[in-house]
Amino acid sequence: MQMKAFMVGPLGVNCYVLKDEFSGEGMVIDPGGNAAEILAYIKAEKIAVRYILNTHGHGDHIGGNDALRQATGARLLIHEADAPMLTDPKKNLSAYMGFQARSGAADEFLTDGQQLSVGHLSFQVLHTPGHSPGGICLFGEGVLFSGDSLFAESVGRCDFPGASEAALLKSLRDKVLPLPDEVRVYPGHGPATTIGWERQHNPYLRP
In what order do the strands lie in the sheet with 136-140? Predict the structure, then answer.
């Protein structure tokens, strides 16, 4: 798997571009902005983008959706519980953060346990509500894209409308902590980590 990370948008979201090196198919996760930069990389690497995936619907993660979808023809994916955020800056909170983020409606809704394939790469959708009702993580190929559910030694904020700290901690304990220690975690903000490190050092995940 070839992967490139971009820090994008006004709040420094980690956008990930994945490519299956055998087929050339790819996926973009959380294009929160800087669409021209992301598209230049996609063009240079000759990636046939199959999906644009939002780990959740907050405005800092969706700002580049429309430009990428128009340029690539990829399908836009999000969990149904967060789908209303795409088109409404108040619901996606960008209206309260000093910018107005909007996206067209999703092409497909993600569901817990769903398998997504990009060429020879395979990923499983893990519904991890708490930071937002429709937050998801994406697990496969030895890595976890954790959105704003899990950060290095921290977790996502739970003081937003529709958020719940109890729900988030349950999501992480039920869906994420059972993963192997060596799984590499790529969050929506901040540095990468591993499941093993978080198991030992994340104060929110200790028994």
Answer: 115-118, 121-127, 136-140, 143-147, 184-187, 193-194
Token pair, residue 156, equals 């996502």
- Whether residue 112 is contained in a domain is answered as yes
pLDDT tens-digit map of 75-121: 999 999 999 999 999 999 999 988 999 999 999 999 999 999 999 99
Listed as ranges, residues in the chain with pLDDT below 50 are none
Q: Tell me the CATH number at 69.
A: 3.60.15.10
Short-list 71, 1, 81, CA closest to 31:
71
Please state the domain count of the chain: 1
For residues 5 and 16, is the Cβ–Cβ distance under 8 A? yes
Apex CA 56: angle with CA 54 and CA 58, to 5°?
105
